[in-house]
Amino acid sequence: MGKPTGFLELERAEPEKEPVQERVRHWREFERRLPVLEARDQGARCMNCGIPFCHTGCPLGNRIPDWNDHVYKDRWERASIALHATNNFPEITGRICPAPCEEACVLNIPEEPVSIKAIERSIADRAIEMGGGLRPKLAETRSGRRVAVVGSGPAGLAAAQQLARAGHDVTVLERSDRLGGLLRYGIPDFKMEKHHIDARIEQMKAEGVVFRTGVGVGTDVSLEGLRAMHDAVVIATGATRPRDLPIPGRELGGVHFAMEFLEQSNRVVAGDTVANQLHAAGKKVVVLGGGDTGSDCLGTSLRQGAESVTQIELLPRPPEGRTDEQPWPLWPWKMRTSSSQEEGGEREFAVMTKRFVAGADGKVRAIEVVRVEWSADRRTMKEVEGSAFEIECDLVLLAMGFVGPEDRTWHGMPVAQDPRGNVRADVESFVTSVPGVFACGDARRGQSLVVWAIWEGRQAARAVDAYLTGTTQLATTPYQYAP
Ligand SMILES: Cc1cc2nc3c(=O)[nH]c(=O)nc-3n(C[C@H](O)[C@H](O)[C@H](O)COP(=O)(O)OP(=O)(O)OC[C@H]3O[C@@H](n4cnc5c(N)ncnc54)[C@H](O)[C@@H]3O)c2cc1C
Ligand code: SF4
Fold first, then answer.
1. Where are the transmembrane segments (predicted)?
2. Is the CB of 232 under 6 A from ligand 2?
3. In terms of Cα–Cα distance, which of 403, 402, 399 is closest to 285?
4. What's the pLDDT tens digit per position in 21-45?
């Protein structure tokens, strides 16, 4: 612990954000990095707790008190080594992780946690600028074993990097034209610019990973064929089957899945031309769903010049802070305002959509909704009589979550699924019902977080390495409950 009185003397500081009226005019990241001295002050606030509860929040088991102390003492290189020991892509999680570690931090009991995420980003960015952060780590010996990783989201990339560093010959197969999964085509640039992914891909290529884009497993090559050509296969294909809303009017023009909208927007920002782009300019947009995806639709619609954006949530408005039912260090269900929600739009809670209403042109012109009342445990709800009303709109984006992997047949290969339709594999072996075929990331656990995807990829790589060589030196972080 660097400064024993740091947590008493210094207040929490958060990175500055560009003012709303400026940032909504462009697509670049708008959150600035903590200045060095402020990052050091934040490091000084860490109490190096006997039981570092921040660890219970972080799936990756990031060594948070260690790097906090290094930063406080201006030892940035050692901080970077400690950070990269558990996280392959900290410059990414330092930007887009919801930071469950901060909810679990002991200093969050009075709601002033250490600014762990901002420190993480500072360490990662400075390491890249100083040259060490992206330096390839070449395996000392090659195993001669061949591994195929299917899917290039954060889970597939983390698995591939770990396996390459363990000396295996790794090929990543990606059906899309660009690498990165939802990091590339889900999360907008204003939350995370895409050069961060490109830089890691270059590092991985230098470490020996081979990337093949435009190759769909099941369409261009069968899973069975892939297994026959490799010593092991890792399925990291995500869980992007969207939840639909089969109510009257669903077929109307102007009602779309959120990912259709976000992918097109991300492509255009990347320089692609998208014919008949789904665009929010001048439109009254309704986003159904109050989570991350809905928030990204809101920020994207505002930047495209929407006339209005209304984000609708079926659940009731959460309490402002923790309640007795969700004590520290648990991840609480409480009111959160994303950076996109700070930028504008209206939020409606406890509202259920009953039907999409057609206009004279046959396209959606409104949604008909009712207010609902929830039981205290939020398990049941009932409609409030006489509360029906209409919200005018000409673009509706369905952002109500995802219900599992898109492909549930695995093209004839008998990969067993769990009751939710995810690929069945446990958190120790990561092996599926087919020997030599492993699964990780959202494909295994269902739609989740980037930090979990990285954990899954790292752990699955360890399991594959042990399967191929009988032992493994790859680092491990045991499974723990975290949001
Ligand atoms: C809009 C949106 C915003 C989000 N924002 C955040 C956020 O801010 N913070 C956060 O922590 N999490 C966020 N998430 C969740 C996070 O992005 C995912 O949990 C994470 O990307 C999962 O990683 P993955 O590698 O398992 O899968 P994915 O990222 O989904 O990648 C799977 C990859 O597999 C490829 N693939 C699929 N099938 C095949 C096939 N048959 N053959 C070859 N390739 C295939 C896909 O094209 C894709 O590239 C967000 C999710 C969405 C949808
Ligand atoms: S819980 Fe908070 S104060 Fe304690 S070690 Fe972790 S970051 Fe530091």
1. none
2. no
3. 399
4. 999 999 999 999 999 999 999 999 9
**Gap between the Cα atoms of 158 and 225, Å rounded:** 24
Domains of the chain plus CATH, in order, are 6-130 (1.10.1060.10), 146-240+403-469 (3.50.50.60), 255-398 (3.50.50.60)
Q: Pick the atom of ligand 1 nearest to 155's CA.
A: 25
Ligand 2: atom nearest CA of 65 is: 5
- Structure token pair of residue 417: 């699924």
For every residue of 253-299, DSSP letters joined together read BTEEEHHHHHHHHHHHHTT---TT----TT-EEEEE--SHHHHHHHH
In short, whether 107's Cβ falls inside 6 Å of ligand 2 is yes
Residue nearest to atom 8 of ligand 2 (CA): 46
Which 8-state DSSP code applies to residue 342?
A: H
Closest C-alpha to ligand 2, atom 2? 105
pLDDT tens per residue across span 186-218: 999 999 999 999 999 999 999 999 999 999 998
